[in-house]
Amino acid sequence: MPRKGSDAPFQYGGQAVIEGVMMRGPRSVATAVRAGGEIVVDEKDLDPWTDRYPVLKWPLIRGTVVLIESMVLGIRALNLSAALVSGEGEEEAGLSSLAIGLTVALALMFGIVLFVVIPTWLGHMTRGWTGTWGQNLVEGITRLGIFLAYLLGIRCFEDIRRVFQYHGAEHKVINTYEEGAQLTVAEVAKRSTMHPSCGTSFLLAVLVISIFVFALLGNGPWWWKFGARLLLLPLVAGLGYEFIRYSRRHRERVGWLIAPGLWLQKLTTGEPDEGMIEVAITAFERVLVPPVSSTESLNPKVSIKFS
């Protein structure tokens, strides 16, 4: 939802990275990382695909576009944060367009295997004693089970738990901004680590929506089920995006619908310390419109070095 007292429709968002946070605004994307005791910020202009090609803003289309574009920005930010934390610098952090494309393609293929191939195959194996809805229910439960197992598995790693704490800091900052409060460490610390438009909630929405959409395809041979589901993935992603977009603007009306997604975020966020909150505030300040200059930081205790 827009900041209280403002008519600006833009919805700020971000992503946790290694020892930092990436924030996305209407004009730029900024990655702030704590390295060597100070906060290092990298800011780049943003040229969204939806601005270049207006047709990509159409409902149900924009969901897949935003998802892929976010993956590209996220991969770049993760690679940059790793380089900055290790002291390599921005010059060594760049990935070619080919490398990014291959990484996104591999990530999508991995997701298709986990959330389309395996669940569809398991559901198909039950065709002898369940109907269409039963098979789709098996598929849906399998997808949710794989998703939960994945989240619980990666939480076992200390480095991932720190990333989740930065994820919580990102949510706290955006919640503070949307509530119209001052962006100070003390104010941000009071806010929730959960947010209705989090990627975790989006993935859960996609998994649930897929149960109902795929059930409409009816029954058939294995190749038909897999192919049809693959072709309908953009539609399912689009429906999930539209639900998340609506729930962010009208969270009071759909509280019971977004509650499961918020509960699931307890696995992907953590309570950040003050230093993590400072990093998230710094990244957010850089993408605000109008921007906050480096000499007028909302948090004067932060030492900022621009790469």
Summary tags:
disordered C terminus, alpha+beta, single chain, 59% helix, 307 residues, five-stranded mixed sheet, globular, 5 strands
Architecture overview:
- Helix content is 59%, strand content 9%.
- The two termini are 32 Å apart.
- The protein has helices at residues 49-52, 62-86, 97-125, 132-154, 158-178, 185-189, 199-215, 222-249, 255-268, 274-287; strands at residues 13-17, 20-24, 28-35, 38-45, 304-306.
- It has one domain (13-306).
- The chain has 10 helices and 5 strands, in the order ββββααααααααααβ.
- It is α+β, with helices and mostly antiparallel strands.
Quick gist of this model?
By secondary structure, the chain is an alpha+beta fold. Helices cover 59% and strands 9% of the residues. It has helices at 49-52, 62-86, 97-125, 132-154, 158-178, 185-189, 199-215, 222-249, 255-268, 274-287; strands spanning 13-17, 20-24, 28-35, 38-45, 304-306.
